[in-house]
Write a structure and sequence with these properties.
Blueprint lengths: L2 E5 L2 E4 L4 E8 L6 E8 L6 E6 L6 E3 L7 E5 L5 E6 L8 E9 L14 E2 L3 E6 L1
Parallel strand pairs: 2-11
Antiparallel strand pairs: 1-3, 3-8, 4-5, 4-9, 5-6, 7-8, 9-10, 9-11
Amino acid sequence: QVQLVESGGGLVQAGGSLRLSCAASGRTVINYAMGWFRQAPGKEREFVAAISASGGSINYADSVKGRFTISRGNTKNTVYLQMNSLKPEDTAVYYCAANYAPGTGVLVTSSQYGRWGQGTQVTVSS
């Protein structure tokens, strides 16, 4: 079973940056598509960014395009979310997700993912 652990969340002022990490353990996720989702209080979980198993295909939510960057580590067992120019509306719990999907496909809906991390809080103050 794949276990996912997120880290890197915290409190930052608007305009600042944070880098989230998602470390996979239990088995290699080299053939897994990975994604980031977020959930703000009182709102449904929403898609943020996704990357294919190959790392060659990436997709972003319109709200974060040009500000966030998703990437995979050299071993492919870690996924990062670099978040720049943060806004108060980015405040949420951020979740890492994974699902077996070899190749170049990206998964952009939460129902496509079978493994989830516990989440990390990101708070952006104005």
